[in-house]
Amino acid sequence: xxxxxxxxxxxxxxxxxxxxxxxxxxxxxxxxxxxxxxxxxxxxxxxxxxxxxxxxxxxxxxxxxxxxxxxxxxxxxxxxxxxxxxxxxxxxxxxxxxxxxxxxxxxxxxxxxxxxxxxxxxxxxxxxxxxxxxxxxxxxxxxxxxxxxxxxxxxxxxxxxxxxxxxxxxxxxxxxxxxxxxxxxxxxxxxxxxxxxxxxxxxxxxxxxxxxxxxxxxxxxxxxxxxxxxxxxxxxxxxxxxxxxxxxxxxxxxxxxxxxxxxxxxxxxxxxxxxxxxxxxxxxxxxxxxxxxxxxxxxxxxxxxxxxxxxxxxxxxxxxxxxxxxxxxxxxxxxxxx
Length: 338
Ligand SMILES: *Cc1c(COP(=O)(O)O)cnc(C)c1O
Fold this sequence. Notes:
Elements: E1 2-3, H1 14-22, H2 34-47, E2 51-55, H3 58-69, E3 75-79, H4 83-86, H5 91-96, E4 99-103, H6 113-119, E5 130-136, H7 149-161, E6 166-169, H8 173-180, H9 184-187, E7 193-197, E8 208-212, H10 214-226, H11 235-246, H12 251-265, E9 280-284, H13 292-301, E10 304-305, E11 307-310, E12 313-317, H14 324-337
Parallel strand pairs: 1-10, 3-4, 3-5, 5-6, 6-7
Antiparallel strand pairs: 2-8, 7-8, 9-12, 11-12
This protein binds pyridoxal-5'-phosphate (PLP).
């Protein structure tokens, strides 16, 4: 079975398992786990922020951002198809009492400074005030689009002009950095915080990082505790995380595989497969005469797994455990399935 459902399905390497077994550990709630402390330092450096916090999931990292940046009952501005809007159980409203004001990005999920200004709500007797702008890079639902630094900066500038901080949901920030040839610290240079996942293309079994200025990360640590995310000898999880950071350099290979996959599948029995920007390939099944679900059922019988994104849209993800040969096999199997 070739599993392209997500870049989260990778299994930890032998080296990761060994690092885990041998990790020096302590009680991280007391700040005494040296491996976690090292991961937090290295992760902060990786995104050019002052400090970072190890969190169990990207979702928790984003939810913590909602709480540290805003006052209960404010608004958060987010792109309509973003993860925080679609896939986090309305967490911003549950955890931070936020009302989400959705903005329609363009077909790549980019929102403009004008949309930020338009969506901004000034606090007064009747209106809650905008407490946060949340960006996503790469943008998952739009097909892993890598949002350029100037687009991120333009939104940050407008938001800051309005006195509103910006959090970047960078679950796949290093994919964006690789695709754009822009170092990750530059991509988030003007943002106020960023979350990135160790557990996706970087291949760690568990974990994400929330990064920002030290004072903000200190408060994030209290919020993590509130969420029940204070972990003890978490060095056994941080050790694979440190190795995952080393995998930043190989993400370009996933992108190449994704492009090869798209090229191989484009036009097969009516499939439409736009050239991907990173490791997420969207397949449009409408002209094959099949729904995404029907298409995936046939693929599964031929040994390929993906996920439905829409009635006629399927997502295939390339990752650490998918080789160039696997890509060729996927093209053969999908062709056979169709
Ligand atoms: C996966 C993902 C998250 C959440 O990460 P989890 O570790 O699965 O909670 C957040 N944002 C985006 C864009 C993602 O793709």
